[in-house]
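Priority: medium. Attachment 1 of 2:
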């Protein structure tokens, strides 16, 4: 068995999550967040984060009844929330630096 951090081929991912390879290739066209490395002969190697995202997409589509467009919208909203969180973190970091500078001057 491969390490959880190992890259996986499309056939390995297909077997692990019980989704045909052609569906994974289709999802790559619909979900730009799925971005496997491509080597010689256009061979795909999925990163662990790609596999996690594929499992999430499968769950949303097959178990929760979302449409492809619904999952795209949900992923986009999550990306926007993550961007907002990063902006807030940067602002807080800047404020903490300013406070440290004020304390040093005291």
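Attachment 2 of 2:
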């Amino acid at each position: 068995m491969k390490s959880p951090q190992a890259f996986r081929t499309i056939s390995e991912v297909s077997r692990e999550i019980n989704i045909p390879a052609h569906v994974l290739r289709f999802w790559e066209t619909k979900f730009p967040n799925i971005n496997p490395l491509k080597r010689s002969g256009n061979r795909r190697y999925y990163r662990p984060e790609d596999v996690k995202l594929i499992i999430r997409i499968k769950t949303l589509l097959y178990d929760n009844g979302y449409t492809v467009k619904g999952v795209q919208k949900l992923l986009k909203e999550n990306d926007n929330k993550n961007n907002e969180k990063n902006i807030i973190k940067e602002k807080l970091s800047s404020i903490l630096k300013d406070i440290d500078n004020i304390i040093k001057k005291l």
